Amino acid sequence: MMTNQLYPCLWFDGQAKAAATFYCSIFKDAKITSENPMVVMFELKGSKFMALNGGPHYKPTPATSYVIECEDQTEIDFYWEKLGEGGRYDQCGWLSDKYGFSWQIVPRVLHQLMADPEKAPRVIAAFMKMKKFDIQALLDA
Question: Mean pLDDT in the chain?
């Protein structure tokens, strides 16, 4: 019996190899698994991705984003700086990388804080003022 796989295909205008190399340089144990002029397959944190040199027809949109849950502020700072380099920093932990793809760099503790009905409104008010998440400020809210 054949098992199906599910993974995203990221559309590029001739930058698939450069983008895969960029992403693999950021994530520990990441690797390019195969490549040809049209498609580069790579893995990040155990997840498979396909980078396609599809041409100028389509551009990335924030309607799809990749979420990185971080254990601590050091991890948030690392991914924020590395993925945001050459891109754009947005509000509430969102950024667009230099290829236009959106990432959410969030603290793992955010789920717990948002589950507390008393604390959640204060946490929301705090992170609405942030670009990069500040874990201590969220805990103090």
Answer: 96
Exposure b/e, 64-98, CB count within 10 A at least 16 = b = eebebebeeeebbeebbeebbeebeebeebbbbbe
Q: Residue 11 is part of a domain; what is its CATH number?
A: 3.10.180.10
pLDDT at position 1 is 64
Residue 84 has pLDDT above 90, yes or no: yes
Beta sheet of 47-53, edge-to-edge order: 9-12, 47-53, 39-44, 31-35
What H or E segment, with its residue span, contains residue 73? helix 73-84
Strand 102-107 to strand 94-96: parallel, antiparallel, or no bridges (unpaired)? antiparallel
Whether 94 and 140 map to the same domain: the answer is yes
What number of other Cβ atoms are within 10 A of residue 16's Cβ? 25
Whole-model pTM: value is 0.92
Tell me, yes or no, whether 64 and 54 share the same domain: no
Check whether 63 has a pLDDT greater than 80.
yes
Query: End-to-end distance of the chain based on CA atoms, in angstroms?
Result: 52
Both tokens of residue 37?
Answer: 């002029």
Percent of the chain scoring above 90 in pLDDT: 96
Q: Alpha-carbon distance 56 to 11, whole Å?
A: 9
